[in-house]
Amino acid sequence: MTEIEYRVADLLNFSSSQKPVEFKQAFDSVMLNKISDAVDQRKIEMAQSMFRPQVEVQDENEEEEVHA
User: Fold this and answer.
1) Could you give the 3-state DSSP secondary structure of residue 36?
2) Residue 55: enclosing H or E segment and its boundaries?
3) Are 4 and 27 contacting, i.e. CB atoms less than 8 angstroms apart?
4) 61 Cβ contact list (under 8 Å, min separation 6)
5) Residue 28 to residue 6: CA distance in whole angstroms
6) What pLDDT is stored for residue 55 in this prediction?
7) What is the pLDDT of residues 13-50, one digit of tens each?
8) Better-scored residue on pLDDT, 57 or 50
9) Domain boundaries, the chain
10) What is the pTM of this model?
11) Contacts 24+ apart (CB under 8 A), 22-31
12) How far apart are CA 9 and CA 47, in angstroms?
């Protein structure tokens, strides 16, 4: 069985033509693709941050101690 690639336009067409089964299939497919893309992007961000050196950022409200 081949999987159909649905678009947001298909959602609108199915809802306006009152085809609830097709709408649900299209909605599930569109959302699955969006979630999968977001998870893949997050994986890339996490992998890149793992090997990036951490830089300490000093809070502007913190006052440096001066030793005389």
Assistant:
1) helix
2) none
3) no
4) none
5) 9
6) 67
7) 999 999 999 999 999 999 999 999 999 999 999 988 88
8) 50
9) 8-49
10) 0.59
11) 29/3, 29/4, 29/5, 30/6
12) 34
